Amino acid sequence: MALGTPPKKGSVAFIAGDRPKAQAALAELTKLYGQCPAHDAAVIVALGGDGTLLDVLRNNMTRDVPVYGMNCGTVGFLMNEYRAEGLLDRIGVADSVMINPLRMTATDMTGEVHEAMAINEIALLRETRQTARITVRVGGQVRMEQLICDGILLATPAGSTAYNLSAHGPILPIMSNLLALTPISPFRPRRWRGALLPYDAQVELEVQDPDFRTVLATADNREVRDVVLVKGAIAQEVEMTLLFDAGAGLEERILEEQFEY
Fold it and tell me: How many whole angstroms separate alpha carbon 224 and alpha carbon 108?
């Protein structure tokens, strides 16, 4: 679904990463189209790489404002091609996709509870040379008594082509209503390659022997060390709108990624 009409000049908030290329793009675009505070903007344009876009989405989760990314970084899987000319018209006919973040609730060894949102994935990773030993529960039921591994991650469809894919997890179509639960370097059971879960699944990952086998948890770029229990589930009440150039939407990109060789 497209916005239908181009945003007005002066109604777009441009937010750039720190890299020189992104800062140069910020200067060029604000000169052409003006600048608007994010809280008043009709559209936010993120300039940089995927990391910049994820930061913009996280910082504006409570605002009902679409985000359009322009690649001034490296990979830019979630970004559109950078072109300064005709930007407002491109945004007006862009395709939109609605995504939900994962909510991570992590309890550390002191009993403190940390909450964070993840657009790509929640991951557990061993902190030392000792392998992690993790009990996996889905919907309150133990599905794996003990996973011996370097870690495990829970990925959204939007994040399935990121860390999840590098860990040999499946690529999920954006409208699949699935989550990917993927082990990272599993030792036992060695042949377990993970699971596809319903979108509304409630996942609990409990660390065994956490004093000796210390584990950290991440929600995208938010890190919590020395965790004992991590819960992850889609925050369905939080909706974010991403914009992509017509015909080059996220669903098509994810489909193409499955035929890369």
Answer: 8
Sign of the CA dihedral running 56, 57, 61, 64:
positive
Token pair belonging to 219 = 């929600």
Burial class (CB in 10 A: 0-12, 13-18, 19+), 141: exposed
Say which of 18, 50, 95, 150 is annotated catalytic: 50
220/195 Cα distance (integer angstroms): 20
Q: Which amino acid is at 176?
A: S
| CA 84 centroid distance within chain | 26
3-state secondary structure of 231: strand
Q: Cis check for the bond before 20: say yes or no (omega within 30 of 0).
A: no
The stretches of the chain forming alpha helices (DSSP H) are 20-33, 50-59, 87-92, 163-166, 250-257
Question: What is the pLDDT at residue 62?
Answer: 85
pLDDT at 175 (0 to 100): 84
Q: Are strands 12-16 and 43-48 parallel, antiparallel or unpaired?
A: parallel
Tell me the C-alpha distance between 229 and 93, whole Å: 44
Distance of CA 9 to the CA centre of its chain: 30
Range with lowest mean pLDDT among 28-42, 64-78, 88-102, 129-143:
64-78
Query: pLDDT for 200-221, tens place per residue?
Result: 999 999 999 999 999 999 999 8
Beta bridge partners of 117: 103
What topology is assigned to 12-99+239-257 in CATH? Answer: Rossmann fold (3.40.50)
Question: What residue spans define the domains of the chain?
Answer: 12-99+239-257, 102-234
| Rounded Cα–Cα distance for residues 47 and 24 (Å) | 10
Class of domain 102-234: mainly beta
| Residue 211 among the catalytic residues | no
- The closest alpha carbon to 240, from 46, 23, 62, 89, belongs to 62
